[in-house]
Amino acid sequence: MVAQPVLVVRSRPRRACRNIVVATDFSNAAFGALLTAAAFFPASPLSRFHAYEHPHVAVGHDVAIARQFRAMAEEDSEAFLRRFRAGAVSVPPLQTWIEHGNPAALLEELVHARGIDLVVLGARGRHPIAEMVIGGTASSILRELPCDALVVPAVPALVSERAD
């Protein structure tokens, strides 16, 4: 049996989703979430969101190290986008946000600031419900989100390409 995406509804919909963001960590689960969002919402502009943290936060703020981590996140983002464009049947316009910090907190801020209707995210667990119960980044994001979320299970064929 193939696991299906799960829609987590926070409030009664008043209109169709117009502002959709895909949370990504550049994993295969995130790749599947982006493909699913493009397939489910072909007429809607999509945005990508990535939050990164680096281990030197506790030691102090080193500008050079911070720039290196930002550059790595941007390079990973571009590679991820090239992979998506190669595998997608049609590619919607994509705005990208890359931020340093806690993914759940930053995504919550983005939802409020940009009026996001729906967040799409990939779950690496065997089933989206199991992922929510067990924990992980997807689970912490779901706890913080004030908007609806579409949780997309990882596609086994995509997962086997790279260990997440």
Number of strands: 6
Q: What gyration radius follows from the Cα positions, in whole Å?
A: 16 Å
H/E element sequence: EEHEHEHEHHEH
Indicate the structural class. Answer: alpha/beta
Supply database-style keywords.
about 40% helix; single chain; globular; alpha/beta; 6-stranded mixed β-sheet; disordered C terminus; about 160 residues
In short:
This protein has 164 residues and is an alpha/beta fold. It is 42% helix and 20% strand. The C terminus is likely disordered.
Structural account:
The protein is of the alpha/beta class. The chain is 42% helix and 20% strand. It is built from 6 helices and 6 strands; from the N terminus they run E-E-H-E-H-E-H-E-H-H-E-H. The protein has helices spanning 28-40, 63-87, 103-114, 128-134, 137-144, 156-159; strands at 6-8, 20-23, 46-52, 94-100, 118-123, 148-153. Strands 1-6-5-2-3-4 form a 6-stranded mixed sheet, sandwiched between helices. Helix 1 links the parallel strand 2 (20-23) and strand 3 (46-52). Helix 4 (128-134) crosses helix 5 (137-144).
